[in-house]
């Protein structure tokens, strides 16, 4: 389906939104409007590719650097050695047993967050044409907005925790900025998934619209996503995507690399033979 | 600090960046869950005395010199550059950490603060700012290994002079046979003691009672190279024990009750043609094999056991000392917490050798409270450092306890050979 056809289909579904989109230029003056549209396009299309490439390249570089470093000089395990060391390392990593034993509330929010993040990834992958988790006819993405809550609430908790002693004294400016960045990615995501369903006319944008945007991304056609994303929510999508790109690009340089390193670290703690 | 020194320290730091260290430095989420793991923080609640507080000093230097943010946005991670203030922070961090690794148990990622403090200690050596007493002790230990031939005769005589004490504990050895076999080629066990006679007398009585084919040699177990954080001197001190064990052709090397010496020999020197055990394991083995008999009512008072961190949490020797102790002290009570969660005595990591009595006492208040709440009258342990520190705590906090070595307790409970 061409972009014109998509736009037409979208307009048919959302006449109110289309009307609003057509009636409201991005800004008053035409040259600035054009510039802004170009910028928006850059953020929504090439920016996505660039941030993904940066994420993969920098993450790979970091992993390779660690893999190439000298091996462990000697075993660094903690005893007693568990009966099933591999199972224990997996439990430490994915069940966060240390956190569970010491701070149940923190553990609950961490589990909620990590589960939510996983569903968030699934929900976004579901927008690609060849992947189908929820029905293509569904107006909602995976979780119908609840997934956003699953990550947003814990992020508020994590941020609040950073303002309380002793974590406050341990925190660096980077810790706060990273959490704020995540929080705003999530809040704008929430705004898109929840906010657009609160309008008087119902949904401004649906899963099908996002899927069209992802189809553009997946096809590398470099088409303007504005043609498939109607209404003023477009601005929020641009901000959401921009912040997410920023997050992806900086991730390999932050402590969020624990995504990759938590399991090897727990293996070092649980398996005496990881010295090789 | 001049550019040359900075560059030297940076190069030194880089030599320490093995795979585990990079993971430890990259991953900490500063969640704060390790803060209360440390006995020092629990006794003196300042964040610089928490695991993460200490590790962050090293991590901030890492970020400054080895990460992009150090170049473009050093404020993001509050990075530190090498200067006097930073070296002071490193010293504070490294020598307030006993290397007990209790924090490793509690960290969601298992980050090893003792390893990170290894970098701090190496940097202090590089800047010539390490505690001179530890460095001197390590140098003396290395030098002793080079001139031991000169003092060989004196050492042999000193061992012979211990015979009456040993025979008082175990008078059943055949007359004429040495109570302490010295440099016996082909012996099954090489026992590596400390310089104090107490580390030989009790062990000799137990070895002889068990009819073990054993020997001692010239080198003591203590490894000041490990305390000062110098891997080169640590290896040289350990290597000569290895060489001696190979020369004598022993099957097993038994390390005296000294946690660090045991861990160095057991884990740090790599695979060897002999097995390494702590002497505590041998006592347990002799007992279970019926090679020694112990008086089951020898100690009537309420008795407890302190797990030395390097032997227990860091090497897995938990049950052996308990079995031996319960065989002579039926009135046994566990400390709370115990085993993996036991509080460090507060004397490890070279702190005992450094002196620092006031700091050691203040920083181990939580240990004194733990001992007191057990209501035990006797605390037994299996590590020289722990014994010294627990004795100091006992005196300082007026706990009214007796502090004993496990080998001492067992040797004094030896029963005559069975029928």
What are the main properties of this structure?
heterodimer; A: 276 residues; mainly alpha; Fumarate Reductase Cytochrome B subunit; disordered N terminus; B: 419 residues; alpha/beta; Fumarate Reductase Iron-sulfur Protein, Chain B, domain 2; Rossmann fold; 22 helices; 6% strand
Mind sketching the topology for me?
The complex is a heterodimer of chains A (276) and B (419).
Chain A: H1 3-13, H2 15-23, H3 30-44, H4 46-68, H5 85-95, H6 97-102, H7 104-125, H8 146-162, H9 167-170, H10 173-193, H11 207-219, H12 233-250, H13 258-270
Helix pairs in contact in A: 1-2, 4-12, 5-13, 7-8, 8-10, 10-12
Chain B: H1 3-15, H2 19-27, H3 39-43, H4 51-66, H5 68-72, H6 84-94, H7 102-106, H8 113-126, H9 132-146, H10 152-161, H11 163-169, E1 189-192, H12 198-210, E2 214-216, H13 224-228, H14 231-248, E3 252-255, H15 259-268, E4 275-278, H16 279-288, E5 303-305, H17 319-328, H18 351-354, H19 357-363, H20 365-374, E6 378-381, H21 384-396, E7 402-405, H22 406-412
Parallel strand pairs in B: 1-2, 1-3, 3-4, 5-6, 6-7
3D architecture notes:
The complex is a heterodimer of chains A (276) and B (419). Helices cover 66% and strands 0% of the residues of chain A. With 276 residues, chain A is mainly alpha-helical. Chain A has a single domain (32-275), classed as Fumarate Reductase Cytochrome B subunit. In chain A, helix 8 packs antiparallel against helix 10. Chain B is an alpha/beta fold. Chain B is built from 22 helices and seven strands. Chain B has helices at 3-15, 19-27, 39-43, 51-66, 68-72, 84-94, 102-106, 113-126, 132-146, 152-161, 163-169, 198-210, 224-228, 231-248, 259-268, 279-288, 319-328, 351-354, 357-363, 365-374, 384-396, 406-412; strands spanning 189-192, 214-216, 252-255, 275-278, 303-305, 378-381, 402-405. The radius of gyration of chain B is 22 Å and the shape is globular. Classes of the chains: A mainly alpha (276), B alpha/beta (419). At the A-B interface, helix 4, helix 6, helix 9, helix 10 and helix 13 of A face helix 2, helix 4 and helix 7 of B.
